[in-house]
Amino acid sequence: MNFKKKLEKRDIQVSVPCRVDLGGTLDISTFYLSMNHSFPSSFNVALDLRTRVSLLPWEKGKIKVSSRGFETAVFKNGDAPFNHPMGLMFAIANHFDAHGLHVQIDSSSPPRSALGGSSSVAVAMISAFYKALEKEIFPEQIAWLAHYIESSVAGVPCGMQDQLAAAFGGVNQWIWKMGKVCPEFEQIVIFENEIEIKRFNTNILIAYCGIPHVSKDINKQWVDSFIRGETRPIFRKIAYLTKEFSKAVKSLDFRRAGDLMNQETKLRLEMTPDVLDNTGKKLFEKAMNCHCGARFTGAGGGGCLWAIGQATDVKNLRPVWQEILRPVETAKILDTKIENKGIIIY
Q1: Which is nearest to 235 in space by CA: 21, 19, 20, 42?
Q2: Residue 76 to residues 6, 59, 154: CA-CA distances in angstroms?
């Protein structure tokens, strides 16, 4: 379908948030289907570092995709390789048989920062196509479609907590299970209103370590070890810790939440020591010294860490983390807050 004339009348812009998380990997069907009895779940917090996708008119029969940190790519309709650095975007365009358009991506988060950026782009891009086609926006439907398209081209099993954070926003626990005919999720909203969310902002801290991550490397190790049966007891424990962490945050017991987070991080380090780089290990140790919890975001191996704790402990941790990050080029404490809104169409 040629979108050129449609977009010449009006370009489409959509934005969605990114996220920090705990209990990732459990959102992959390899894990949650075989761990059904353990009630696996993931916890995430949407951040106001939003990703904006614009659909603009372009040459008929061609698709152009541009994004900060990546080389701009142009392909004829249907010819783009899906193993391209922006292959997911071209796969989404193919789903809509779209051409005659320029997909412009503008992300507020650092490139490859393990904040769920690629999944956020997918949710925003699908929402933009829905708007262009005058289809009603259902966040759940868009999140599932983004998940399945990404899974089909990634070459490794994919979860869907990133897509849900982007589509819904807020602070949530997502419970993974099998429905009558397909996988489904249950959403437990941790904080219901803006006052609670504003207060929770004082209990978290997010740092970018300055080194981009490649999630598939570590994720593949976790999947392979689980399939071989080597790490299943560890992931059962992670499922328990995630459930208890969600309860602790909801009850405002941030000391307990920090302890549970540290237990989860240590289990991940036991399986994959490279999940934290040298800077990340220093940040983790100092967080524990300040009575806070700390964890890598996404699959780790670079990118971001986030901390949780009582407001006074997090306040004390901030300058300690800043001192560790100071010598690392591009590393910094991110200026971000919790985002309660998911998909926004402009």
Answers
A1: 42
A2: 19, 10, 21
Pairing of strands 101-107, 62-67: parallel
Residue 31 CA to its chain's centroid (Å): 18
Q: What CA–CA distance (Å, rounded) separates 295 from 275?
A: 10
Residues forming beta bridges with residue 44, ordered by sequence position = 21, 172
Distance CA 174, CA 166 (A): 13
Residue 183 DSSP SS3 = strand
Q: How confident is the chain (346 residues) per 10-residue block, as mean pLDDT?
A: 94 97 96 96 98 97 93 95 95 97 94 89 98 96 97 90 98 96 96 93 96 73 96 98 98 98 98 93 98 95 94 98 94 96 97
Q: What per-residue confidence (pLDDT) applies to 156?
A: 82
Q: Which residue has the tokens 């925003």?
A: 124
Contact between 3 and 100 under an 8 Å Cβ cutoff? The reply is: yes
Structure tokens given for 220: 């593949």
Across-strand partners of 336?
Answer: none
| Alpha helices, H only, the chain | 4-9, 29-32, 87-95, 117-132, 139-154, 161-168, 194-200, 215-227, 232-250, 254-271, 278-289, 311-325
Longest dimension (CA), the chain: 59
pLDDT for the residue 213: 59
CB 207 within 8 A of CB 306: yes
**Long-range own/partner contacts, residues 187-194 (CB < 8 A, 24 or more apart):** 188/41, 188/246, 190/43, 190/246, 190/249, 190/250, 191/250, 194/340
One DSSP character per residue, 23-38 reads: STTTTSHHHHTTTGGG
What pLDDT does residue 192 have?
A: 85
- How many angstroms separate the CA atoms of 333 and 210, rounded? 10
